[in-house]
Amino acid sequence: MKIIVPMAGIGSRLRPHTLTTPKPLTLIAGKPIVQRLVEDITQVVNQKIDEIAFIIGPVAKGFPGDTEERLLKIAKDLNAKGSVYVQEQALGTAHAINCAKDALDGPCVVAFADTLFKADFTLDSNSDGAIWVKQVEDPRAFGVVKLQDGIITDFVEKPEEFVSDLAIIGIYYFKEGSILKDEIQYLLDNDIKDKGEYQLTNALENMKQKGLKFVPGTVSEWMDCGNKNVTVETNSKVLELLEKDGKNLTSSDVKLENSTIIQPCYIGANVVLKNTTVGPFVSLGENSVIENSTIKNSLIQSNVQICDANLDNAMIGHHAKYNGKFTSVSIGDYSEMI
Asked: Exposed (0-12), middle (13-18) or buried (19+): which is 16, by Cβ within 10 Å?
C-alpha cells in the first residue's frame, strides 16, 4: 500500500506561523503534524506501507530548503520508500494529487496533511474505496457526501445550500490508485474546474458514475489544524490521547527551579523552567526558557524565551521572545514582544 500526502498549501489561516514554517511541519506535542498523520495511518491500516509520497509547495512559498530531507527521513523511519513532489501552482486538490501520479497505482491512502484523526480503518473488500467523514454543524466549508444504504451517492464541494452534514475529513482509500489517476487526468485534459480549481470531489463523482462504490469511514476523533485556535485545541487533544496511552512526554533533562508541570504536557529537551507553572495541555519545544510565568492550554515551538507571562490558548512560534500580560496571543517565528 502507498500513502499520498498532499501538503503544498500555504496555510494562510494559520499565519503568521506559516510564513516561515509550512503548516504540516508545525510541531504538535513535539512532532510535525505530517509525521503524526503518516504514523497514525501506518499503525491502523494493518498493511505494509511500500511508499509514502509527499506533495509540497516550492521554497518560494515558505517551504524550507531541508523539507525534502526531513520528509524522506519520516518515510525511512517507517520502513517505507519516500518520494517528494513539488506542486508549483496551487490549482486544487486533484491537481496536487496528480503531481504524485507516478505513485498512483495499487492500493492507496490519500491523506491531506492539515488534519489528525482517530478512525476505524477496517477496509471493506467489496468496495472500491472509502472516504472518512465526520458530522459537522456547518458543512459549507467542506466537501460533503450523501449516503444511501451505506453507500456514498454524491460528492459535493463546499455546498452553499445544505445537502449533507457529513464532511470529508481529508482521508481517502482507493483499492486501485491508477483509476483515480486516470480520472484526474481527464479533469486536467478537459479543463474541468469547480470554483476555479481542479477538485478531487469531481474525480470521485466521475468514478461513482462509472459504477465504482465508495463507503464512508468511521471517525471517532477529527482534529483540525486550520487556524490558531483549532490547532491549539488539537494540541490539547493529542496530549490527552497520548497520556491515556501511557506516554511520558516530558524530557528527562528539563531543569525545574521552583516550578511545576501539570500533566498532560509535552516538554522538549534542554528546557528551563524558573518560578513557573506549565500545564495542563501545553507543548513546549526544546531549548526554551520560561521564567515567572503561568502557561496552560498552549502550543509553543522551540528556542522560545518567555517571562512574566500568563498565557492561555496561546500559540508561539520558533525563536520568539515574549514578555507581557496578554492571555491569548498568536506570535509567529522570530517575533518579539518585550
From this structure: middle
For the record, the C-alpha cell of 338 comes out as: 518585550
Q: Is the pLDDT of residue 62 over 60?
A: yes
Torsion, Cα of 129, 220, 39, 5 (10° steps) = 50
> Please, are residues 199 and 94 in contact by the beta-carbon 8 Å criterion?
yes
Question: What would the pLDDT profile of 216-249 be if each residue is shown by its tens digit?
Answer: 888 888 877 667 787 888 899 889 988 888 888 8
Q: Is 204 exposed, middle or buried (0-12, 13-18, 19+ CB in 10 A)?
A: buried
Whether residue 116 is predicted with pLDDT greater than 80 in this model: the reply is yes
Distance from C-alpha of 51 to C-alpha of 74, rounded to nearest angstrom = 11
Alpha carbon distance 116, 130 (integer Å): 17
Output phi, psi for 93, to 5 deg: -65, -40
User: All 3 cell numbers of residue 78?
Assistant: 517507517
Kindly list the strands in the beta sheet with 305-307, ordered across the sheet, starting from the edge strand earlier in the chain.
255-257, 272-274, 289-291, 305-307, 321-323, 336-337
The DSSP secondary-structure symbol of 194 reads B
Nearest alpha-carbon partner for 104 in 220, 184, 221: 184
User: DSSP class of residue 201?
Assistant: H
In the block, residue with C-alpha cell 462504490: 213
Please report the pLDDT score of residue 336 as a whole number: 56
Helix (H) / strand (E) containing 116: strand 115-119
| Angle, vertex CA 68, rays to CA 62 and CA 71, nearest 5 | 105
pLDDT band per the 50, 70, 90 thresholds, residue 13: low
The confidence score (pLDDT) of residue 177 equals 95
CA distances in angstroms from 185 to 151, 206, 217, 253, listed in the order given:
25, 12, 26, 52
Q: Could you give the CA distance from residue 146 to residue 136 in angstroms, rounded to a whole number? A: 13
pTM of the shown model: 0.85
3-state secondary structure 135-170: ECCCHHHCEEEEEECCEEEEEEECCCCCCCCEEEEE
Of residues 145, 207, 171, the one with CA closest to residue 45: 171
Q: What is the pLDDT of the chain when averaged over all its residues?
A: 87
